[in-house]
Write a structure and sequence with these properties.
By secondary structure, the protein is of the alpha/beta class. The chain has one domain: Rossmann fold. The protein has 6 helices and 5 strands, in the order E-H-E-H-E-H-E-H-H-E-H. It has a 5-stranded parallel β-sheet with strand order 2-3-1-4-5. Strand 2, helix 2 and strand 3 form a beta-alpha-beta unit. Helix 1 crosses helix 6 and helix 2 runs parallel beside helix 3. 32% of the residues are buried.
């Protein structure tokens, strides 16, 4: 990937779809190759008790924080950005892309609700129960569908899914196998 321009991928999908886990695996694989990268779980850029409880306010804070940290990462020589966040609309994708200031491709991870329930069974806090209800509502309403460049099913081992994402992006640097993808 030497000489490749700076770019990013946004892993999106409902709560429990595995965005953070797949992002961590991609970061691990990039690190093993010595690639300059940054992993940003965008939820942490707006995790604050602002008292509003308003998604638009939280999203706005996240976008402002993303724009603010990008200059630091670029000065450090980072070229590849792995982002994890559930975007619900094309407008949200546009705002993330503008804050990133780089070409951005969107990968929507999908998984059956039963699999999400199984993943969360060992970690049932009050917040997790709320997140599970939100995931079920988002799936039923098809929130976030259609904002992606590709859909990848996250019903396989995380390493396989991460390699599928990297193959789609052209970040594999060789024959790491054929991606199993659906979508546009």
């Amino acid at each position: 990937m030497t000489g490749r321009r700076a770019e990013g991928v946004l892993l999106t999908g409902v709560y429990g779809s595995g965005k953070s886990s797949v992002a961590e695996e991609i970061a691990y694989l990039l690190e093993q190759r010595g690639e300059p990268y940054a992993l940003l779980d965008l939820d942490f850029l707006s995790w604050a008790g602002t008292g509003t409880g308003d998604r638009a306010s939280e999203f706005g804070l996240m976008v402002q924080n993303l724009a603010a940290v990008m200059a630091n990462y670029r000065r450090a020589g980072i070229r590849l950005f792995v982002l994890a966040y559930f975007v619900r609309s094309a407008g949200e994708v546009r705002e993330v892309r503008e804050a990133l200031g780089l070409p951005l491709r969107v990968v929507r991870l999908t998984v059956r609700l039963a699999a999400i329930e199984q993943r969360l069974a060992s970690d049932v806090t009050s917040g997790r129960r709320d997140d599970l209800r939100a995931a079920a509502a988002s799936i039923a309403a098809a929130e976030g569908a259609g904002v992606e460049d590709v859909v990848i099913s996250n019903d396989r081992p995380v390493g396989v899914v991460a390699r599928d994402v990297m193959t789609f992006l052209g970040w594999c640097g060789g024959a790491d196998g054929r991606a199993v993808v659906t979508g546009r």
